[in-house]
Amino acid sequence: MRCGLLGRKLGHSYSPAIHARLGDYPYELVEKEPEELEAFLSSGEFQGLNVTIPYKKAVVPYCRELSAQAKALGSVNTLVRRPDGSWYGHNTDYEGFRYLVESTCHVVAGSKALVLGSGGAGVTVAAVLRDMGARVVVISRNGEDNYENLPRHGDAQLIVNATPVGMYPNNGQSPVDLTLFPQCCCVLDVIYNPARTALLLQAEELGIHGYGGLAMLVAQAAGSSRCFTGQEIPAGRIQAIEQELRQEMENIILVGMPGCGKSTVAQALSRRTGRTHQDSDALVVQRCGMSIPELFARQGEEAFRRLETEVLSDLGKASGTIIATGGGCVTRRENRCLLRQNGTVVFLRRPLELLPTDGRPLSQSGDLQEMYRRRLPLYEDFAHITVDNTGTPEDTADAILRAIKEERP
Q1: 31-59: per-residue pLDDT in tens?
Q2: pTM: predicted TM-score of the whole model, two decimal places
Q3: Domain that holds residue 26
């Protein structure tokens, strides 16, 4: 059986990695333009297909039969070729989103739920929530309930983003300001890249439970795999695959005082994991064409900080990378979201008497003890976990990997 994902611009998709774990069948990414759709679906090359933007509705006319779910939602995300060569269309997005809700958000029945977006994803999300007993309000750009009159829904308890706002590569954008919803206790985002959208990061800061779309992605893929092979995928396997992917795809980011060993430990982590590693200070030097001490002397600290934030903005969008940051990156609040959006941030702690100061303008110009006093709460706020760097780089790398596994089982 030859299977794949049909879309127009697929970019970096997690689907092949998921299906490789779900079943023993080849799975390919298939990019087609609208004018190529008919010939491709008639070619007989594939026996099973997932369908994504913009073809979930476009493939419906090519199906001889639709499942009840596909009919109800008016879209298809799974195609299975029958022995006579015809297509059977199904939609597993419903079960995927229901899995996400059931595994994360436990206050649904009777709750007021805002669904952001009235497109295909929004229709699916709204259907699931209504079936689970929620009082659903769909927010669209036009119509009675829109983004201009959101305050009328300040009593919403559940908010679901079913739009592409905030999705890679347009990280950092959010469809709403959560401070408008003081009764909100759970936020779900169907986006899975980045792992934490700007919406979810704001939820985190406000103490609201928030969850991204990776669990939904894996669960809907499991439903498609069942259609392809006839084999049921147990819920425990779905959870295991989600956790495996999360740990593979998220970055490991090191923050800490200048000279605490971030670059050296990043290299050790790279050797341990096989991942690439990046050094934000090295990229700043590369971009400005001068050393950091020279940049400080010529343009001052503020110029350095601006360039550093630009570099961190790019690095934070990466997946599965080891990132060593500059010691003062925590002094800019906006860097927190840039680092946490797609990774686990580790505060690398090292005794002050072991910190070198050569080639470090701020370390040379002031009192290290005072610098540490000011920055310690910032390091702790940025980081998910703290690890001491007092042994060999390899020992510290191993300690980090153990701590991450415990933090995100």
Answers
A1: 999 999 999 999 989 999 999 989 999 99
A2: 0.90
A3: 3-90
* Residues 267 and 386 reside in one and the same domain: yes
236 lies in some domain? no
Q: How many domains does the chain have?
A: 3
Task: Give the strands of the sheet with 87-90, arranged side by side.
Answer: 27-31, 3-7, 48-51, 78-81, 87-90, 63-66
How far is residue 340's CA from residue 195's CA, in Å, rounded to a whole number?
9
Q: What's residue 12's pLDDT?
A: 76
Would you state the pLDDT for residue 409?
47
Summarize pLDDT for 115-135 with one digit per residue, the tens.
999 988 999 999 999 999 999
Domain annotation covers residue 156: yes
**311: in domain:** yes
Q: Is 9 a catalytic residue?
A: no
Of the candidates 339, 352, 97, the residue with the CA atom closest to the CA atom of residue 221: 97
Judging by beta carbons within 10 Å of its beta carbon (0-12, 13-18, 19+), is residue 401 exposed, middle or buried? middle
Spot the catalytic one: 9, 32, 56, 405.
56
